[in-house]
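= Tokenised fold =
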Amino acid sequence: MTDAHAALMDRMYRPQRRIYDLTRKHYLLGRDETIDALSPPPGAHVLEICCGTGRNLIRASRLYPQARFYGMDISAVMLDEAREQAARRKSGAPIVFAEGDATDFDAQALFGVPRFERIFISYALSMIPAWRDALAHAFDLLTPEGELHVVDFGDQAGLPLWFRIALARWLARFHVQPRRNLANDFAAQAQARGLAHRHDALYRGYAFHEVAAPRLG
């Protein structure tokens, strides 16, 4: 991605940063279920790619205070909000935030951590133009025993056509484009790395939750 995309995100989120979490909680479904599924072992390094306001990381840090948490985002505006919220809401464990491009950021340079036991991406691939590159980079940052969790808009296959059309038009106003091939691309990248893959269609396909790990029960 380019500096132009970072500038676009800053322009869009600057007037929204204070109300983002309040307005998004009604349609960014499946985020809490994804966080609940992380279950990082003690001492694990947990990274959220495109962490936004830090809402998800704060919740995760309270659930898993024995882990270490990191968040990156391309928007400096959202990172400012994330740092403020983490300080104000008193996260369960310290969270380190850094600015970067999801497709090629240097985790060692940003965080002093080269690989992560858990990585999750929540409703971000649908906003990243080079989303497949971002997904591949996330896979590359896993430890040998690491897990990657992604939740994002699904294909809405079980929902009425009128709803799918209306949702697509609404999301386009915020530069969001559901990735209809997310499940297939995720599975292919997991398989190429010898990882097991689980696909869950949530709320009649409104959202997809994808998980890749060395082993899945």
